[in-house]
Design goal:
Blueprint lengths: L14 H20 L1 H32 L9 H6 L2 H15 L6 H4 L6 H9 L2 H32 L2 H29 L12 H27 L8 H32 L2 H9 L6 H19 L2 H5 L1 H23 L1 H4 L7 H22 L12 H8 L1
Helix pairs in contact: 1-2, 1-16, 2-4, 2-8, 2-9, 2-14, 2-16, 4-7, 7-8, 8-9, 9-10, 9-14, 10-12, 10-14, 12-14
């Protein structure tokens, strides 16, 4: 196959997506009126999840550019289209923290300033400063994502190798800035929902889940577009094998960080730390707490251990779907206990918003994917990707 052949996305938007989008919008609107205490946290969760899929796309692209991962060139348009979810999720998250700041108890009940660590915490958890940081995080991430994707698409018409080198430099800068800002953003948007609790590895735990979920979504989309036609003859068993290896590795990495955080807090047994897990081991939550580990690690580990399973599109898709379900559960366990307490609730509001977020991600992805050939035809390493993974 010639690397200069045009590849156009001809996959139509499924009608069921429009139905799910309507269900999500209706659930959110009715929930804000009838069950605001349950709806606002779910909107925050859904926005964070959408933003995470977009960020995972940028991180994957940046890692490949910096590492010289030419194997992924043929499927790079998938994570590029995923980045379109970043500003959508970011706008949703910003809207929630602007319209419902009371989700963060410290926004109106922060103790008086004190010396030392408590004084710094008081200054950091200042609502105007919190909003300013949120804007900076989202603007910086979006700017890098757009610059990298724009250069990639520009290369379709110019074939200029300098654009690859430019993106490699941009990617290196992005990864450094992302590492710091996402660590802080995890503390701001998620950990500060329970401001008395803290964990020094919470940022890396959030990264591991975010990137694992992004890889799983990418694998599902790659297999889908291969089967639907746009990537038929482009994606080979080795592409699936490499994606499966990454999913397998980051699933195990997620488990390592999960265990490290849980074990150290359990062993130290400090009340200000154990409160987080006590809330997630109460009535109705324990089953989900255990299921989280099974969905994100146990099942994917045993399913994807054989090499053949990583290459098998059906098995890879099934394992990825399990991880995506686990990602939703992991976020649910991070966001909802501070609001639900022991009275666990999952009903039409939660399910409707999650389904709507899923449909919105696919809608945004397909719209972005149609704006360029589904293969980066001007990339100088595309033919190498075909040769190695054909």
């Amino acid at each position: 196959m010639s690397p200069h052949q045009e590849f156009e996305l001809s996959v139509e938007t499924p009608g069921c997506l429009r139905v799910l989008l309507a269900v999500g919008a209706l659930s959110a609107l009715l929930g804000l009126v009838l069950a605001p205490a349950r709806t606002w946290p779910m909107l925050l969760l859904a926005s964070y999840a959408l933003m995470g899929f977009g960020l995972a796309g940028v991180v994957f692209i940046a890692i490949q550019y910096v590492a010289g991962g030419h194997w992924s060139v043929a499927i790079r348009r998938i994570p590029e289209a995923m980045t379109a979810a970043l500003p959508v999720g970011g706008i949703g998250l910003l809207a929630v923290v602007l319209l419902r700041p009371s989700l963060y108890a410290w926004s109106s009940h922060l103790p008086e300033p004190a010396e030392g660590w408590l004084g710094f915490k008081h200054a950091w958890l200042s609502y105007p400063f919190f909003l300013a940081r949120t804007l900076v995080y989202l603007l910086v991430w979006t700017a890098f994502a757009r610059a990298i994707v724009r250069a990639s698409r520009q290369q379709d018409s110019t074939g200029d190798p300098a654009l690859t080198h430019r993106n490699a430099r941009l990617s290196a800068a992005f990864l450094v800035i992302f590492g710091l800002t996402f660590w802080l953003a995890s503390f701001d948007w998620v950990m500060s929902l329970e401001p008395e609790w803290y964990s020094t590895i919470f940022g890396i735990y959030n990264f591991s889940g975010m990137f694992l979920g992004g890889l799983a979504a990418m694998a599902v989309l790659v297999v889908w577009l291969e089967k639907a036609g746009p990537l038929a003859g482009v994606v080979g068993p080795q592409h699936r094998l490499d994606l499966g290896r990454l999913i397998f590795a980051f699933s195990t990495f997620w488990m390592y960080i999960w265990f490290s955080q849980y074990m150290l807090i359990w062993y130290a047994n400090f009340p200000e730390e154990t409160s987080y897990f006590i809330a997630r081991r109460g009535p109705y939550w324990t089953t989900l707490f255990v299921l989280n580990v099974f969905l994100n690690w146990v099942i994917p580990f045993f399913v994807l251990t054989p090499r053949a399973n990583k290459q098998n599109p059906r098995v890879l898709t099934s394992a990825s779907a399990v991880i995506l379900l686990g990602r939703a559960l992991d976020l649910f366990l991070m966001f909802m206990p501070p609001f639900a307490g022991n009275e666990f609730a999952f009903g039409i509001w939660e399910a409707g918003i999650l389904l709507g977020a899923f449909a919105l991600f696919l809608h945004v992805f397909l719209r972005a994917a149609r704006q360029a050939p589904t293969v980066p035809v001007g990339d100088p390493f595309l033919y190498e990707s075909f040769q190695e993974h054909g």
